[in-house]
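Issue 218. Parser rejects a valid record. Input:
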Amino acid sequence: KGEWISPAGTRYVFTARESMDYMKKKRIYSSFMPTEMKNYPTQGECGFFVQGMIGKLARHFLSNHNYNGKAFLTNTVHDSVWADVHNDVVLEVAADMKRIMETIPEWAKECFDWDIDVPFPVDVEAGDNLYKKEGI
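Output the parser choked on:
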């Protein structure tokens, strides 16, 4: 077993498995899965960032009384955050969500003293349903 502990303290554990035939020819009989070692920490830490942004968004929505009852956070999928928003406030909510979610570097600095110099651009889409959504 091998492990990597993220700066936030999440522990990722990797288990060696029987190697593929091409590696056995090189006398390497067990190995870690490269896709696990690359994907798990990346996806896990991105999930960590999304959770932080959900907290910021939830506080913002609550402090604005869910835009007077016209906007509600509803779901997350991977790095997407979904909201049910009335057409009257969709542009305001979209701008607020984009602004808040793009503050990951500032949030990471404030909460964990991490210096992240990578931008986190956010695309915002809206529509009557997931099939009909378009970029704003």
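Fixed in the parser; the record now loads. The beta strands are 2-5, 11-14, 17-18, 30-31, 71-77, 80-85, 125-126, 134-135.
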